[in-house]
Specification:
Strand content: under 5%
Radius of gyration: 16 Å
Distance between the termini: 45 Å
Strand order of the largest sheet: 1-2
Structural class: mainly alpha
Number of helices: 3
């Protein structure tokens, strides 16, 4: 990775985001059985302040970005029911 970043060799640029962010109670059905808290961080955030704090912490730890997975609107949930 270091040699790719330095331009010494060609290769993919890999960006890391860590665990995804879900709203409180909004972890999708397909992800509920996955160990998304393996890094010790609950993937659900209660509000915008909690999300901002977690994002700042992850970015300070060297991650390149955050992955937000918002809950669908109530209209979308009704359409899928």
């Amino acid at each position: 990775m270091r040699r790719i970043g330095a331009g010494e060799v060609r290769g993919p640029r890999v960006l890391s985001t860590g665990s995804p962010f879900f709203p409180q109670g909004g972890t999708p059905v397909y992800a509920r059985d996955l160990d998304l808290a393996a890094d010790g961080v609950d993937p659900e955030v209660a509000d915008a302040d909690a999300g901002r704090n977690r994002a700042r912490t992850q970015l300070d730890q060297g991650l390149h970005g955050v992955k937000l997975l918002p809950a669908p609107s109530s209209a979308a949930r009704r359409a899928c029911a």
